[in-house]
Amino acid sequence: MNAVANTTHDIDVLSFNALQRNLQRLFVIRSIVFTLQLMALLYAWRVMRLGLDYGLIFTIFFTLALLNGALYWRLQGRQRPYAPEFFLHLLIDVLGLSLLLYFTGGANNPFISYLLVPVTIAAATLSFAYTLTLAACALTCYSLLLFFYAPLPELVPDAHADHVGVAASANLHVLGMWFNFLVSAALITYFVVKMALDNQRQEQRLRRYREDTLRNEQILAVATMAAGTAHELGTPLGSMAVLLQELRQQYGQDAELGADLKLLQEQVRRCRDTLRSLTQKADFKNLRPEALPLSEFLAQLLEQWRLLRPEVACDLSQPPGPSPTVEVEATLQQALINMLNNAADSSVKGLELKVFWNATHWTLSIRDFGAGISAELVAWLGTRLFSTKAEGLGVGLVLSQATINRLGGTVNLFPLQGDAQESGTLTEITLPLRLPRAAADPGAL
Questions:
Q1: pLDDT, block means (10 residues), the chain with 445 residues
Q2: Residue 153 DSSP label
Q3: Which end of the chain is more exposed for a tag (fewer CB within 10 A), N or C?
Q4: Could you tell me the fold of the domain covering 288-444?
Q5: Model pTM greater than 0.90?
Q6: Domain locations in the chain?
Q7: d(CA 213, CA 221)
Q8: Which residues are within 8 A (CB) of 389 and not within 5 positions of it... i.e. 6 or more apart?
Q9: Cα–Cα distance between 392 and 396 in angstroms, integer?
């Protein structure tokens, strides 16, 4: 239940961030349009001296300005915005503009086409239902303004007026249409495209989060089974240790059998030590990072791995000079060993390792000479339990990638196509020199 609650909370946070940014952009759009409308109204009053009800129009402007100020105040708080609230703001824009147009010539006003801007914003950011509702509202307002409005003679010249008056009115209407097109195109091009890109990025983050959640659930299931298995193995391993000790005492005079029993005893002891170490490393309080020179850490890593896979040739090359200091923890070493084992299982003539670094990150590349991995598997390998080996369980790469991601790193696999000398897979593991705070201090989680 806690995992479900945390997943829902994180998804809500992503949605909150996108809506918050869209509301901020809507505030900017309103401010720009409000300033331009106010300048046009002042121009009509002071220069053109149009016969408008300026008192009522300025009252509408003042009300819309207060609503935009309320939006600014709303953005300063920590309350979470929701899609209905964003829709309500767009609806207010449609109704407010329609009310202004009613007193400034109705559908004859060239700024009538600005009604498309809120609809376009809704189409880029809201669901189909909200967009359809807003479009229907804008269309209704447009239709009503065709018949109900306060006439503005300067926008609709009389057919019996002189030729100069007709030309002036036509020029005013055309100029207004051009200016409105310019403003609407600029707002849609800049702000609406940004809103749409934000929504796309949000969908990508949600998709990636769902994939990570699925992988983490698989890891949790594996960890639960591993804990139960470790507990169950303790008793038979203890019994085997006692029996092997008795057998060595009973058949110690047989040199060949005694050597075999000693080897078995060492293997059992190693299994018990591994289980004990697994229990200790599973305690997050003991996962404290250790600062080591990168060259020293890699030397320890390869020394331990060569004990496990002495038959696999492995060459490591790194830049000359002193290596940087890195923060590592025990789980990272095991994750890298799993990656080396996967590469060694696929390779026919050993591995080539290269390490390089910059000011913030270090990268370990593992080059094997196997058949290579298909491009289709690269996209999701490591996110679900799957193995290309008949005897494999598909757990190693998933656990390793989860560990590296938790430490702020990434894993990339590149298939190499060519002849027997050039085919294989290149695995690049990139990690920060300093671990993220959440990984470096597990107690803070």
A1: 42 57 85 86 82 86 89 80 88 92 84 84 83 88 87 59 45 61 66 70 72 65 61 76 84 80 83 71 60 90 85 88 85 85 84 91 90 65 51 61 84 74 83 72 45
A2: T
A3: N
A4: Heat Shock Protein 90 (3.30.565)
A5: no
A6: 2-213, 219-284, 288-444
A7: 12
A8: 345
A9: 9
